[in-house]
Amino acid sequence: MAEFEVPVLSIKNLNKQFGKGCPYCQDEESLVKNYCPVCGTVYACRDVSFDVFPGEVLGIVGESGSGKSTLMQCLYFDQEVTNGEAYLADYHNGEKNLFQESSQQQRYIRNNIMGKVYQNPLLGLKMNFSSIGNIAEKLIAAGNQHVGMMENRGTELLNKVNIPVHRRKEAPKNFSGGMQQRVQIAKALSNRPPLLLLDEVTTGLDLSVQASVLDLIKSLQRELNISIVLVSHDLGVIRMLADRTLVMLEGRVIEQGLTDQILEDPQHRYTQQLVHSLL
Amino acid sequence: MNTAYNFAFFDEGSKREIRRATLKAIAIPGYQVPFASREMPIGRGWGTGGLQLTLSLIGKNDVLKVIDQGSDESVNAVNIKKLVSDTTGVATTDHTAEASLIQSRHRIPEVPLKKDQILILQVPLPEPLRYYEPSENETKKLHGEKEYSGAWLMLFEQIMKYGSMTTGADHPVMVHDRYVMAPSPIPRFDNPKMNESEALILLGAGREKKVYAVPPYTKVVSLDFEDYPFEPESFEDKHCRLCGSTGVFLDELVDEATDETFYQCNDTSYCIETLNEVEPFGVK
Ligand SMILES: Nc1ncnc2c1ncn2[C@@H]1O[C@H](COP(=O)(O)OP(=O)(O)O)[C@@H](O)[C@H]1O
Ligand SMILES: [Mg+2]
Ligand SMILES: [Zn+2]
Ligand SMILES: [Zn+2]
């Protein structure tokens, strides 16, 4: 990482709470983990800041409930942040806080500058539409008006993620879990975004299928030199793909650094446990 | 005229309320305005949306035409005409040019509409994005943000499946460069008649409780792609067996005796008018 390299994505002090809060939970010490026992507010993401650099895979690891998915939803505008800032180098030279933009602008950003793959394919795909149609959806949303071009691009992408071309008009509901994730990946890549968000993409798949999807992500990342934010509760997945890693606990980033360093010399007690359980 | 009812069946308050929704619909071309759809003495799905608009608008001097898929004589059209004339006493007609109010299901008449006419179309499914997005809340947002990828995606899917945009009826249109609208199940052949129409066009959905409008002289464009332009049904080289007309929407029929295919105007009143015009010519 060069010293003056401009981040693709920069997140500053992102907070997301579910609930209004109350006088009692003004004092963070009174929370039980990330939860206020008095008013029930969940502080899902707390003061999260990080940068993602060009061509980098940034891993985010943490136990279930630590706020990883909420963070990704905020980045993709599926959820509104409580407060915080986000900047994309490819959007107004990284000078506009994405969270302040209109929902129309946020749609533009989603469709042109980002791609996302959800753990649950139901959230990322229209199960009754053809696979190639699912890819076309994102191309159309980015302004494409040419069927032939979209069909070619879709076929090329499905080929890239190893979906047999003759199945391109089939609906993802007919596909296995691994294939559905491949279609989601193809869709996410369709507009050649500089940034890809992956939330537990292999969780729930058989181990062998998991390995082949991870291999695919690895090779696509090398080929396209795309930046990836990769979320997983599984440190094994993170170890395989991430250059750098953030560790989240109860909504906070408690440790970050090069993945190798974190694995070799974890600082935080929680990270030490996590690394131990991997060995 | 049946005097057991208020003029035009509804009480004045109900009619005013429907007219208010209609005015809003005219002010926002292509936008679906909710209205409090009323119980009607005919079943929902039989044009109650259109009928409510007709009853709220009709005045003593109006002349009413009702057509069902091009026919003035169908049971459905006759029932609606009867209900309206029983409760208003207004005159009815088959002649498009004579009517001030035209309620129609699945067709726009062949005789071009004029500026003192109102066309009321019956709508079964007002939401053009419904198959793409089942939630009303979400489709509302999509309209609000002019996010119509879903409308084009549905056309893309048809091309993938059938090799062309074979929607047949109800091909979606963009109204006034702003709202995507379901034109109701009219054939693609009728879509261009909506563009810059001299007559006001109102669309009413009874079951879904929505009214929307294309005001006179409004731009209406059928959705398509650069390499798959919108195409109405074509009846090139075909003519009506009865009146000889070309360039109109024709029904394809089979002569059971000879097994031969022939064509006939779908708009029956147009066909009869054309026949009546042609005959004196032949006599001369
Ligand atoms: N829509 C929601 N409403 C209320 N609480 C939520 C909602 N979504 C997530 N949470 C809570 O936020 C916390 C973080 O959840 P999540 O981001 O899904 O964690 P992870 O992905 O790390 O497992 C959890 O305590 C979860 O219960
Ligand atoms: Mg999660
Ligand atoms: Zn509280
Ligand atoms: Zn004819």
Automatic annotation (TrEMBL), chain A:
Keywords attached to this entry: ATP-binding, Nucleotide-binding
Gene Ontology biological-process annotations: organic phosphonate catabolic process
GO MF entries: ATP binding; ATP hydrolysis activity
SUPFAM superfamilies: P-loop containing nucleoside triphosphate hydrolases
Domain ABC transporter: 26-275
Pfam families: ABC_tran
InterPro entries, A to Z: AAA+_ATPase, ABC_transporter-like_ATP-bd, ABC_transporter-like_CS, P-loop_NTPase, PhnK
Gene3D superfamilies: P-loop containing nucleotide triphosphate hydrolases (3.40.50.300)
Keyword Nucleotide-binding attributed: yes
Top-rank lineage group of the source organism: Bacteria
Protein known as: Phosphonate transport system ATP-binding protein
Organism: Neobacillus niacini
Automatic annotation (TrEMBL), chain B:
Enzyme nomenclature, EC number: 4.7.1.1
Keyword Amino-acid biosynthesis: no
Molecular function GO terms recorded: 4 iron, 4 sulfur cluster binding; alpha-D-ribose 1-methylphosphonate 5-phosphate C-P-lyase activity
Keyword Lyase: yes
Keywords: Lyase
Listed InterPro entries: PhnJ
Protein's GO biological process: organic phosphonate catabolic process
Pfam families xrefs: PhnJ
Name of the featured protein: Alpha-D-ribose 1-methylphosphonate 5-phosphate C-P lyase
EC main group: lyase
Organism (species): Neobacillus niacini
